[in-house]
Amino acid sequence: MEKSFLESNFSLVGGESNADCQKRAIKVLKEILNVFRDKKVVIGSHGAVMTLMMGYFDSNYDLNFLHNTSKLDIYRMEFNEQELVSVKRLWSVQIGVRQ
């Protein structure tokens, strides 16, 4: 995992690199943003894919961020067109409910 975040084009044999995964995920996300403009949409994803999508817009969403997720996390990402304007964590593992 660490190597794949340090070297975005690295992949295990038969696997997908983080660069390719991010490209694929962002293409779909941008299509969703276009089709459902001004709508609320829920997207389910694995933590690594979520981090790669978020990291596309803000490099603070990196491996350290992924390691600090609770592996059952809910984030609200707000966009203006295709610009990420805010991110809010909606889940707290300590109390097990939405924040």
Task: Explain this structure.
The protein is of the alpha+beta class and 99 residues long. The chain has a single domain, classed as Rossmann fold, CATH 3.40.50.1240. The chain has four helices and four strands, in the order H-H-H-H-E-E-E-E. A hairpin with a 4-residue loop joins strand 3 and strand 4 (97-98). The model has no long low-confidence stretch (mean pLDDT 91).
Question: Topology of this structure?
Answer:
Blueprint (H helix, E strand, L loop, with lengths): L1 H5 L11 H18 L11 H11 L5 H5 L7 E6 L2 E7 L1 E2 L4 E2 L1
Antiparallel strand pairs: 1-2, 3-4
Helix pairs in contact: 2-3
Key traits:
two-stranded antiparallel ribbon, globular, Rossmann fold, 99 residues, 39% helix, alpha+beta
Helix content: 25-40%
* Strand neighbour order, sheet with most strands: 1-2
Count of individual beta strands: 4
- What share of residues are in beta strands? 15-25%
Report how far the terminal alpha carbons are from each other.
Answer: 29 Å
| Overall mean pLDDT | 91
Question: How many individual domains?
Answer: 1
CATH topology: Rossmann fold
CATH class: Alpha Beta
CATH architecture title:
3-Layer(aba) Sandwich
Radius of gyration over alpha carbons? 14 Å
Could you describe the largest sheet, including whether it forms a barrel? 2 strands, antiparallel
Shape: globular
Q: Strand-and-helix sequence, N→C?
A: HHHHEEEE
Structural class: alpha+beta
Quickly count the helices.
4
The CATH superfamily label reads: Phosphoglycerate mutase-like
